[in-house]
Structures are given as C-alpha cells and as structure tokens.
Amino acid sequence: MTDARSFAAAGLLLFAGCYSGVEVDAAADSTLPPGQSGGDSEGSGDDDSDPSGGQADEPEVPQLVARSGMRRLTRIEFVDTVADLTGVALDGATSLPSDDLLPFDNDYTVQAESASLIVAVESLATEVADAVVGDPARWAAIVPCAADAVDEACFDSFVRTFGRRALRRPITDDEATRWADWMLAEAEAAGDPSLAVATALRLFIQHPEFLYRIDSGEQTADDADVVRLDDWAVASRLSFLLWGVGPDDALLDAAEQGRLGTPDDVEVEALRMLADDRAKERVQRFHAMWMGYEVMAIGGDLGESMRAETGALINRIVFDEERPWQELFRSTETFVDDALAEHYGIEAPTNPAGDWVDYGESGRAGVLSHGTFLSNGFKDGDTSPIVRGQVISTMLLCLEVPEPPPNVPPPPPHEEGACKIDEAAAHLTQASCAGCHAMLDTLGFGLENYDEFGQWRAHDVGRPECEIAGDGEVPGVGPFNGPGELGLLIADSELLNACLAKQAYRFAVGRTELDEVDAALIDRTREALGEGDFEFKQLLLQHVTDPAFGFARHTEID
Amino acid sequence: MPRSLSRRSFLAGTGGAALCLPLLESMMPRAARARGDGGIPTRYVFCYAGTSSGRYRTPDEGEVLVPDAYGDLATTGAAMHSLQPLFEEGVASDVSLVSNLLIPWGGSESGLAPGGRLSSLDFHFGPTVTPQLSGMKAIVKARMDGPSSDQIMVDALAADTVVPSLSQRVQPIDYMGGNGGSAGRISFRRDGDSISPIDPFVSPRDTFEYLNSVFLPPDASPEMIAAIERRASVLDEVGGAAQSLMARLGSADRQRLERHLHEVELLEAQLRSGAGDISGACIGPMDPGEDPALGGQVAGVDQLDGSLGWSDEDTRAMRQIELIRMAFSCDVTRVAALQLTNWKSWMGASNIGGGWDIDIHEIGHTGAMPKEAMGDVVGWHVGQFAKLVRALKETPEWDGSSLLDHTALVLCFEGGHGEDPLDGGYSTHSTQNMSVLVAGNVGGLVAGQHIDGQERHPAEATLTAMRAAGHGGDFGDFSSEIAGLRG
After folding, report:
1. Integer Cα distance of A41 and B243 in angstroms
2. Which of A96, A170, A194, A363 is paired with A513 by a 20 to 30 Å CA distance?
3. Does residue B33 sit within a domain?
4. A135 and A29 share a domain?
5. CB contact under 8 A, B253 and A554
6. In angstroms, rounded to a whole number, what is the distance separating the alpha carbons of residues A538 and A324?
7. What's the alpha-carbon Rg for chain B, to the nearest Å?
C-alpha cells in the first residue's frame, strides 16, 4: 500500500490555472481509485502523510469555497443514469425514497439513509441485471462478447469500461482482479457465463460511488476541510449539473487525460455538453422545479400541451436562438396546439399539432402567462392569491417573507358570501398580519384574472358580482395587471436576475440553505454577468468556470 | 482486506461445499430467544390516516366517526358509518375511540401551546402531523424536531431485534406527479443532534424480500442458497467499498455513509443468518407476489375512474398487514409504523365503499358529495386498522395468548372536524374534535370504549399507548396520559 501511494505521489501532474494542480496520473497507479492517493487515513508517515504534497507549485486555493456534501442521486437522476448506462428503463423506480421539491429535488441535506433505500436499490440492481442479460441488444451494447462466451478478457474489458462510467472513475487493477476471481468463478460454478456480468451489474448499481456523488480529491494545505477536486469529481459535477446523469466517455476521457484542470478546459467540455439534448432536458427541468410546475395540478393532454408550450419557449430562448434569458418573460409568441390555443382563447396555430402564435392583444406575454406557471396556487377548485404571492415573492424573486411572530392572533373568521379580495383585505386589519399579507396578497391578486388552468376570467368562481380587477404590485418595482405585465416588469428588474443566480446556484450545489460564502459566490456570478440581460448559458458557464467549482469544503459536525 | 469473514471467503475456504456461518447472537431468531428468556415481547404499532374525520362546512349532517355518547363502543358506535369496519372485522370490543381531542391554535391567548398549531404553516404540512408524530410543535413546515413515537419505542422494545423497526406506507405514490416527499413519511429517528426521516417501504414485494432474508426454508434448494449467497457477496463488496470511502469524507458525510453501511450490513447479516425460527406462531413470510400496478395521476382530472389515483391499496394494505403480523410473530421486529395514506392524500376513492370518482382530499373539501363519501373515506382507514387488529388477535403466541395481547396500536388522523380560524366552522382543516383509535391488551389499555378526550392533545393518547407498551418517559412536550384510557 505504501509503495503504491508513493508511486502515485510520483505521478502528480501539475497544471497552471485557477484550481488545477494536483492530478493523480491514474495510469501511474491503477491499484487506487482517485482521491485515495493522499490524505488516506491508513497512511503512516510516507510522502502522502503530508496532504499538501507539491504545494509549492500549486495554484492558490480560492478564498471562497462552498461547503459541500455527499449527494445521493435523486430518484430521477438514478433512473436516467441507469438508462444512460444500460438502456434499461426503470419505470419511475417509485420504491426509491421520495425527493422533496425545495424547490429543487436534489438537496442533499435532507436525504436520509434507510433500510428501504438499501432494499430498493438492491431490487432495482437485480432488475437492471436481469434486463440486460435477458435482452441481446442491451447486452451487446455494453458487453464485448456473447453471453455464453464471457471469459477473463471479456469480463475485464467490461468491468473496466462499464465500471468507469458507472463509478465515474477508473477501475483499479485490484478491483478488476478481485471481481474477476470472484464473479467468473461463481459463474463457472453455476454453469452460466453471463452470471459474472449480471453480478457485476448488480454490484455497480449498488456501489456507493454509483449511488452517491463524492467530492474526491486532495486535501489542501491551507485548510484541512477544503478539498481540491480531482478531474473525475469535476467531471461528475459538470455532468450532473448539465445533464442530470453521469459523465459520458468523452468527459471521462478528458478527466483521465487531465483535461479538466483549468476553467478553459472545463468550458470546452461544458460547451460540448450544452449542445447535447440532455442539456435541454436538464434546463427545462430546472425551470419546472424553480417555477413550481414540476408537479402540476393539471394533467392529461392539456397538461402535456402546457408543458410542451413552456419547454418550447425555453428551448427557443436558451438553445435555438440563444437570446437573453430574460426574453422568457417578454416573449410575444407562444407555442400552442389547437386545444391549448382554444383553452387560452388566443389565435389558433397554423399547425394544429403545435406552432408559434402571437399573443396579440390578449394581455399575455412570456412564460408567466403559461398554464404551467399559472397552475401555481391551485387550491380547492380555485386559485389562492396568497399561495401565488408566495411563489412569486419567495421562489421567483427570492424575497424574504418572515414567519409571523409568535402569538399571532387567529385571522378574522371566514365571512360567508364575501368576495375573495374583500376576505383577503380582512387580513390587513390586523397589524401583525398586514405587513406580509400586503405583499403576498397584492402580488397574487395581480394574477387573479387568470384561473388555475391559465384561462382568463372576469369574476370570482360562480360569483358574477365579484368582479376581478387584477391589479397587483411588486414591492419596490412597480404595479402590474396580469402575468404579461408582471413578466415585463420583473424581466427588467435586478430582483429577477439576482434570484435566478441564487436559484441556479442552489440547483448546482444541491443545497437550499445558503450561508455567507454562498452569498458571496452568487454575488460574484452576478457581477461577472453584468447589469441587464444575459444568456442562460452564460450563467451556467460562469458557475462551472468559477475557481470555486473545482473545490469542496467538507461539512463537519461540531 | 475484507471487512469481515464474508460468506464468499468462507465458501472459498471450504471449497464451496458448506453453508454454515456462525450466527451472531443479535441475528438469531427472536422468538426462540424470547422464549428462552421466559417472556413474550411487547410490540407497538403507529398508524396514520391522511384524512380528517369530517368534511368541509357541513354543520347539520352529523359526524361519520364520532358517536354522540361515550361509553361502550359496541353500543355507542353501532350506527356510526366509519366505525362499521370494526364490527365487520369483529374487533369492536378490542378497540377504543378517544374523541374530543384538540391541537390548540398556536395563537391562542395562552400563547403557543405544547404541540400547538402555528398559523403560518400549511395545514397539511406540519400543524397537525408533526405534533401527532413527535409530540412537538410544528415550527417549520414539514420539519420534525423530535423522533416519532415508533422510534422512541425502538429504544424501549426492540434494541436487540434483527430489524429495529418496520416502517411501511400503503399509498405508494402521491398521484400528483411525485412519490410522496415529506408527506410520505411518518417515522423519524434521532441521529446525534439531528432528526432524520426514515423512508418507508412502499413495495410489499421489497418488504417481503427484506424480511424474508431472515429465513431460509429447511428445504431450500442449492440454487436458492446460491442466489442468497450471491446477494450477500455483493452486499459485502458494497459494504467494503463504503468502508474504504470513509477516510475521504468529512464528518457529516461519514455519518451518512455509516448509516448506509449499517443498513447494508444489517441486510447482509440477515442473509447470512441462515435458517430463521419457523416454528409455532412463526410461519415465515408468504410470498406476496408482484406488487399491484401503480395507478394513474389524478392531477387535473375532474372525474376519476377505477384506474386513477388507485394502486389497489386494499391489496397492498393486506400484504403489509400480513408482513407486520409475520414480523411480530417471528419476533423479527417489535415496532412498526404503517402510513395508510399520505399527508393530504390524493388517493382516489373509486374503489372505496360505495365508489366515489373523486380523490379523498376533495371529498373532504367539496360539498358536492354525499356524507356517505366522507364516511367511506374515514371508514376505509378504520377498516385497515381493524384488519391489522384482527390479524394480531387471530395470531397465537406460544403460550396460547394472542399477538394483540402483547401489542399496543394507535391510529391517528390528519385532522378533526370543527372550527378553524382560516376556514370557519365544521372545517375539514380543523384541529378540534380530533380522534385517535387505540387497541391492544397490554399495559392496562382499556378496550372497546368511546372515551372523552376532554380537549386534551391527541399526542397524549399516543403517549398512553406508548407507556402501556413499556415506554417509561414522556413524548415530546407531553407527559400526561388520557384519563380513562388505561385501567
């Protein structure tokens, strides 16, 4: 072990750049996985006992390094990564633990480990193995020999190739040898050569380095809690952020060849990945979770049409035309099919199955006029202006809405027959409620002319006498009437841009609760993007090329 | 270096001819050990229903669950729609109903009451659930500040069982695009200074495989033994990989991975423990077969049919109840949590009672459905509880007593039926007139009665059952029992 680690230390490659530097030459020591060449607690006084090995030539550790933690693949990441690796569709894998939308589904701080997780993963791993063994096409896609001809060479090739993708790092000689000895013997005893591959697949899917994303790398000399990520970990960060699945072979090749050591290197790979359809899906999903329609109270064909509408706009703005992201909120056109156009009461598309149409004088504009966004606040067969106000303020604009103080009195009793806006106004008669409700209610009632399905309406449900004015106001920004005006208003506001930066950061780091370091990093991104409009890709590129992207601060328990 | 003597290593050393690993004491079949100790273990089950006990703004139609009078439940409850399953299952004399319970509004003049409801929180995600699960106030939406009652009972009852506790959920998905989130959990344990959720088993098939791993039939074929060995070997390798990662992690991550490793080792040890004690009342698990298909989403659907919002929860519940019965009878575990429906459940009611083509959350809110619909929804939950009670009642212990004679069971509801400051009177969002069902002939629990809760907190009914089952302490903010629930 000592010899091996000394050998690894001798294989360090040094790169210039913001966060490059210590790279383990995997080819130099294939007995150790990345991240185990230094700082290994089993070490005992050899060269690696000094985690700063080679520090004199290392680039400076950034002052700002965000805390990070082990991230279990979300249910969707698990399913998508398995499909990406094997072609096996796990049909939702609902036996895996649920992921809360906070608003994103990847907050590692709320993930928990339970027996049900272990059992579900074991069961799914068996399902994957059975599906591959039972399907010659899937088998042929990942195993370089026939199912009845799995010999030592074939198995070795399989575990090294597939294992590298599954575990997102090279398979060591030790592992390959150990697994071959075990699994091939087992298969031979059973008289079924394919069993070796099936066992390996079950291992890979249950392996902690498949199930969890781990910040592997080297401890830095200045701060024992800060890790300089190795290229494999950088590849994983990049891939899960941009694609929601593990790295492909090209990205792993880049990691293996030390081509993820500088921001320029990372940018090259990021641009390649952003041109892939997987990035479109990932960016769409980010928006769906952020804007609250990932889980939508509108199903069926209409719901699908609405999702297609919003997805088409995001693709157009972010990818196809590469326009400023803020145009999402200003767009005068929308992508609808016949049914959705009729639902909204706007011009029918040329192609009944779906095409771009002009909003005309409908009062609509941009994504906030879509049924997807307007489904926020669905409650008891109507809209809740308070909930919509919360969505706009806390999720879309990142405004702080304080919790009511202790001993807040009960709100005024429900008054039968009162119009919604009058009932809401009663909240404002109580001093302890007025502050927050003035903001939330005013925001929410600005969308009140649009019901929970995104259709325009003139009055409360079943109450013609309760006409809806639809006037709202964004505190400190200005008044609006309807989702179109709200979109135009906030698209020009720094509030929206700052909130996007914050929410994208949360999504990227997989953590909802932020601290002062996070805030400083977000500010840095905002400053780099400058005032006014910017492209969404710029935001992503800014994040992945920031010096902090290549580092992690371990979270310690006091 | 292997972490332990793996079965793979063992088999290699014996030429693969033997399958006989030494049993760890902690992995031995419990029933035999319990008998050796001369006693029968006590068990605890916490059940949860994601519905209120009454529907929205229906002041004149009467209750569906709570009888007008207190006293003998078989008499007072005979006409109550939602209590009929107790009679149908023959357990009306084994179950007590505690009604007139109250989770006080947090802003009452007396201040924030223990276990009180904070007005700022969405009704469904904290104000009523958190206090009932943990006996503590809902301070932050969907966050638990204390362990749930089942996990507290693990310390009292099950420290040395193979499976410390078994948490299951009947409703497998939320029918609105997700698979539960926080609304799909009712078990929370203390991990150091933090409270961690325990994700329940939602697949009876998975639960069966998990529990079945303890047992190896005497007539197990070589193929079956080899398959178990392969599972254990993979888990051994997974555990070794987790162990080797520890040094690379910060302490927070290490704590998580240690928990993961613990669960992996537990399953591996179960597989390696060889033959379970399949004797007496312990008959081992029956293969439940494949899980029923998942139902469709109810999102945006005005009128359901039998395929939407329904994953054959009747069959799922039946299988999960059977798994609890088996796990108790074989002393694999002594603590169970059974979440019948999610918080704010959108399960469809097409297959419930008279068949209502609408989800159960909407039944609680809409005035368009007849009273019977609400009665059926509440009754469905009572029915599952009754089936569990019956299953335990009909399962003998080795001394001729029944499992029910050694078990305390609780069923809580998400809401009551009364005034709510946000919704007005007779609201399904009310925390007045809440009810708890309690069963089990252990620790002096009174059975077959309708008991006046005297506006005490529902957590006190749970505490009463916990103490009856052997818990010696408090429950979150609560230290008092419900008068009349224990003799």
Report:
1. 12
2. A96
3. no
4. no
5. yes
6. 10
7. 23
Whether residue B462 lies inside any domain: the answer is: yes
* Residue A194 is assigned to a structural domain of this protein: yes
The helix or strand, by DSSP H or E, that contains position B343, with its residue range, turns out to be none
Is residue A115 domain-shared with residue A190, that is, in the same domain? yes
Q: How far is the CA of A291 from the CAs of A107, A165, B114, B314, in angstroms?
A: 17, 32, 36, 36
User: Could you tell me if residue A529 is inside a domain?
Assistant: no
Q: Do A207 and B298 touch (CB under 8 A)?
A: no
Give per-residue pLDDT as tens, A63-117: 899 999 999 999 999 999 999 999 999 977 788 988 888 899 999 998 989 999 9
Return the CATH number at B112: 3.40.720.10
Closest B-chain CA to A189: B16
Strand runs labelled E in A192-324: 212-213, 217-219, 226-229
Segment B1-10 mean pLDDT: 34
Domain that holds residue B102: 40-212+303-468
Query: Residue B244, class by beta-carbon neighbours within 10 Å (0-12 exposed, 13-18 middle, 19+ buried)?
Result: middle
Q: Which residues of A touch B298 (CB under 8 A)?
A: 299
The answer to whether A380 contacts chain B (CB < 8 Å) is yes
Per the DSSP assignment, residues forming a β-bridge with A382 are A379
Tell me what ipTM this predicted complex has. 0.87
A203 vs B contacts (CB less than 8 Å): 234, 237-238
**Who among A113, A208, A410 is closest to B241 (CB)?**
A208
Name the residue facing A114 among B226, B246, B263 (closest C-beta).
Answer: B263
Q: Are strands B407-415 and B434-439 parallel, antiparallel or unpaired?
A: antiparallel
Q: How far apart are CA B135 and CA B145, in angstroms?
A: 9
Q: How many domains does chain A have?
A: 3
Lowest mean pLDDT among A42-46, A322-326, A403-407, A482-486: A42-46
CA pair distance A310, A328, nearest whole angstrom = 9
DSSP bridge partners of A474:
A478
pLDDT digits (tens, 9 = 90+) for B23-72: 333 333 444 444 334 589 999 999 999 999 988 766 667 899 999 999 99
Q: How far apart are CA A261 and CA A22, in angstroms?
A: 9
End-to-end CA distance of chain A: 32
Cβ under 8 Å to B: A residues 400-419: 403-404, 406-411, 413-414, 416
Q: Identify the band that residue B362 occupies on the pLDDT scale cut at 50, 70 and 90.
A: confident
Cis peptide before A103 (omega within 30 of 0): yes
Kind and range of the H or E run holding A335? strand A333-336
What letter does residue B485 receive in the DSSP assignment?
S
- Averaged pLDDT of chain A: 87
Q: Other C-beta atoms within 10 Å of A1: how many?
A: 14
d(CA A368, CA B386) in angstroms, rounded, equals 49
Substitution target in B163, B173, B235, B238 with the highest count of A β-carbons within 10 Å is B238
pLDDT digits (tens, 9 = 90+) for B137-188: 877 766 788 999 999 999 999 877 888 999 999 999 888 766 567 788 999 9
| A554 to A67, A228, B326: CA distances (angstroms) | 6, 11, 43
Contact A404 B119 (CB under 8 A): yes
Residue A184 in any domain: the answer is yes
Contact (CB<8Å) B256/A199: no
Q: How many CA atoms lie less than 13 Å away from A514 in the CB half-sphere?
A: 20
Could you tell me the residue range of the domain that residue A422 belongs to? 320-491
Tell me whether residue A118 is in a domain.
yes
Question: Between residues 486 and 545 of chain A, which touch chain B (CB distance below 8 Å)?
Answer: none
As a whole number of angstroms, the distance between CA B391 and CA B372 comes to 27
The total number of structural domains that make up chain B: 1
Q: Which amino acid is at B60?
A: D
Angle at B333 (CA atoms; ends B329, B339), nearest 5 degrees: 100
Q: List CB contacts (< 8 A) between B200 and chain A.
A: 114, 116
Q: Are residues A168 and A43 in the same domain?
A: no
Do A83 and A44 have their domain in common?
no
